[in-house]
Amino acid sequence: MIEAKNLTKVYGDGTKALDSLTFSSSSKSLTLLGKNGAGKTTFMRILSTQLMPTSGSALVEGYDVVKDAKKVRKIVSSIPQEAKPVGISSPYEHVAMYLTSRGLSISEAISRSRSVLKDVGLWEVKDKPTDSLSGGMKRKVFVAMALASDAEVVFLDEPTTGLDPLSRMEVWSILKSMESKLVLTTHYMEEAQELADELLMINRGKLVMSGSPSSLLKKFEGMVRVEGTGEIRVGRTMIKYVRKDEASYYVGKYIIKPISLEDLFIMYAGDQELTYDSS
Ligand SMILES: Nc1ncnc2c1ncn2[C@@H]1O[C@H](COP(=O)(O)OP(=O)(O)OP(=O)(O)O)[C@@H](O)[C@H]1O
Predict the structure, then answer these.
(1) Would you state the pLDDT for residue 279?
(2) GO terms for molecular function, please (predicted)?
(3) Distance 17 CA to ligand 1 centre (A)
């Protein structure tokens, strides 16, 4: 269970990254969505005890992230967005050392590292210095660490950024097979669709909406997206949402796309108050 009550974070330079965020979730897999700078990483860092809130409270599995920080650290594993491997150490050393630092015996750490490195497809490069691996493979080292941790709650900040489409799908299937609860951030809407039981959308540190992908997409039920015309502007693209039975009018002249989480993002992640236009 993840709970936040009036959670606020003001950084030293006065930036208010979280603004009285109140939210609770008992989902197995929670995905945080929001524009760059919305406050997702700040929220994850507070939940995983890497950052102190300015005010308000947050609980992970019932433990307060400030008062019970040591207990929280025992049950969570966190892979930050900016995580960089130690270049001279191998994937195998990364995973095994991480596990021993979490209190596993050396023999347990060795056997679990071996099995996880096979699972994530890093077995053939397990003894190479991570410096010599590709960017995507380096990212997978951290996925392997999270997977191996067996933590009750695993926080992953943009876990598949930089991975090729096949590797990304492999990582999704690994994450789905994990028993741990997952809290992740992503800018890939297919990833959110694939992994999230529940979405939390944040804008300027405030909760915009939360719910299952299917319940949130009900807002667009019976509609399609038309690109090339309309009032909504995303960069140079003009968009509107019309009812499916009106779509035939646009066929051949405009691009018509089925509704996806991207549309939820377009409509709600920013500051604009947008409305459906079916004229
Ligand atoms: N150490 C810091 N000092 C000052 N401001 C910060 C610091 N870290 C983040 N911020 C600011 O806090 C706000 C929220 O940042 P945060 O990293 O939480 O956003 P985010 O939603 O994770 O963004 P992204 O999707 O780009 O990773 C932004 O305005 C950011 O510039």
Answers:
(1) 42
(2) ATP binding; ATP hydrolysis activity
(3) 6
Ligand 1 pocket, mutate which of 13, 32, 35, 41 (most atoms under 8 A from CB):
41
pTM for the model stands at 0.90
What are the backbone dihedrals phi and psi of residue 71, each rounded to the nearest 5 degrees, phi first?
-65, -40
The answer to whether residues 203 and 226 belong to one domain is: no
pLDDT in tens, 69-107: 999 999 999 888 777 778 889 999 999 999 998 889 999
The whole domain housing 250 covers: 221-258
Regarding whether 228 and 157 lie in a shared domain, the answer is no
ipTM above threshold 0.90:
yes
Residues near ligand 1 with C-beta < 6 Å? 11, 13, 15, 17, 34, 36-42
Cβ contacts of 99 within 8 Å, gap of 6 or more: 108, 109, 112, 113, 148, 149
235, part of any domain: yes
Cα separation, 99 vs 116, whole angstroms: 12
20 and 66 housed in the same domain: yes
